[in-house]
Fold this sequence. Notes:
Blueprint: H1 2-31, H2 36-48, E1 51-58, E2 61-66, E3 93-95, E4 108-113, H3 131-142, H4 155-170, H5 188-200, H6 204-208, E5 223-231, E6 243-248, H7 257-278
Antiparallel strand pairs: 1-2, 1-4, 2-3, 4-5, 5-6
Helix pairs in contact: 1-7
Amino acid sequence: MKNTILRKGCRHTVFTVTLLVLSYCSHSAFADFGVDKFVSDFNGMNGGRGLVFTAELNRLEIYVRPTQGTTVPADGWLDAYDSKTSGAGGSYFKTFCVEPGVAMGPSNYGKLNYDSITKTTSNSSGQAMTLGMAIIYASFAEGKLKGYKYGNNREHSVVDFTDVLHAFLDGSIGNGEKGDIWGNNGNAMVRFLRRTMNDYNLSLAQLKAAYNPNQYYNAIGDYSVFVMQNVEPGKDAKDIQDMIYVMKHRTSDVPEPATLALWGMLGLGIVGYGRFRRR
């Protein structure tokens, strides 16, 4: 009798552990966006030059305009952008610089920087995008960044936004030193990030950590944010301003085979546990 109880207890433990492991693995699979193909296709456009575009400043925001007659990604490449942050028919999208002290080129080739080994996206100077940067840009693109004035009087908002981006890039945000922008409650982007931390139980250390475009984050949703490294013909990439681009993943995408296999394993675990309970 004792042996039977022990065997049942062991089986119960095995089922429980199996379900927990499968649940964790399936969560990890869901988190993998599979961005490698999108990045490869994007960067392979126009004979390997990527996105061919012109960039212009408009009230301190950067307007990226694909050059007429050149190839752009498939339909939906600007689905992440609201009408306040993009033009009709994909004529442009709004973005910001992520390479302080570097000038923009009049004509550029843009490629998404994604290192599939380190799972990071960085500017031409090697500075990685952080989670905090990705959160505020994705929210900006959606037209939902609270505290950001999208209208004609947005100059102050752009300065706030850019100051926070650059503070994340150079690591000065939250360092407690004089002039630390994290202590400036007058900056609307700082206030937004503080609210986001509370809403999603995030720490400042997590906001400062390198962002992985291939990973799902609750505070961002089904989006991948990239640094678009720009090269003007005949110039070094470090001499031309890099910018940010965000893509939205379609919820109708077919799950990867690994994810389907995990679903099947999880289903078998549940069925097995049900049969055990009936004994």
